[in-house]
Design goal:
The complex is a heterodimer of chains A (111) and B (110). Chain A contains no helices and 11 strands. With 111 residues, chain A is an all-beta fold. The termini of chain A are far apart. With 110 residues, chain B is mainly beta. Classes of the chains: A mainly beta (111), B mainly beta (110). Chain A binds chain B through residues 31, 33, 35, 40-45, 48, 50, 56, 58-59, 90, 92, 97-105, and chain B through 1, 6, 9, 31, 33, 35, 41-45, 48, 88, 90, 92, 96-103.
Chain lengths: 111, 110
């Protein structure tokens, strides 16, 4: 079991560029979520999904899109990157709200 | 909206001293989870509390969930250098969302 994997580990973007952060899990978990972590602010939920084909917004969804076409994958899309989206992004999965398993994170810098 | 406050933000202790971090929610929670994040790492699940007044222990760590299910604490007895990291609580309401506290960064001075 690889658990939760995220790619890339690091990314630098220019303002206005788009990109997709990848997240995959091999534990057959229904629940997946994306968080961003900023200094002094803990982890804030961006979007989450309770199963394939179902997504919902979290606390800070603006500027981000998600889709869940399979149980395994939950990509996060930035359509037009802004400096305010500089952050560390974590993907997590769990079995219906139980223990959340986090991926290693993606450190994103937007210039 | 849902808020989970955590104090203190930072704590420096001498090795062997005790440490406590507190978590307070503005609304009643269905459960609360605690995570530890080492510097440069990702959050790692420690425990989940579900019942009102619940107390759970893991070696030197003691976790409590308040009677009203709006607050929780994590207490570490006789800290060691391996305890260094940031401790987060995460409260879940009746929906599917988890709301993380801002975290307490623990430094242990040998």
């Amino acid at each position: 079991n690889a658990g939760v994997t995220q790619t890339p580990k690091f990314q630098v973007l220019k303002t206005g560029q788009s990109m997709t952060l990848q997240c995959a899990q091999d534990m057959n978990h229904e629940y997946m979520s994306w968080y961003r972590q900023d200094p002094g602010m803990g982890l804030r939920l961006i979007h989450y999904s309770v199963g394939a084909g179902i997504t919902d917004q979290g606390e800070v969804p603006n500027g981000y899109n998600v889709s869940r076409s399979t149980t395994e994958d939950f990509p996060l899309r930035l359509l037009s990157a802004a400096p305010s989206q500089t952050s560390v992004y974590f993907c997590a999965s769990s079995s219906s709200g139980d223990t959340q398993y986090f991926g290693p994170g993606t450190r994103l810098t937007v210039l | 909206g849902q808020q989970v406050m955590q104090i203190p933000q930072y704590q420096h202790v001498q090795e062997g001293e005790d440490f406590t971090t507190y978590c307070n929610s503005s609304t009643t929670l269905s459960n609360i989870q605690w995570y530890k994040q080492r510097p440069g790492g990702h959050p790692v699940f420690l425990i989940q509390l579900v019942k009102s007044g619940e107390v759970k222990k893991q070696k030197r760590l003691t976790f409590q969930f308040g009677e009203a299910k709006k607050n929780s604490s994590l207490h570490i007895t006789a800290t060691q250098t391996t305890d260094v990291g940031t401790y987060f609580c995460a409260g879940q309401n009746t929906g599917n969302q988890f709301y993380f506290g801002t975290g307490t960064s623990l430094t242990v001075i040998p």
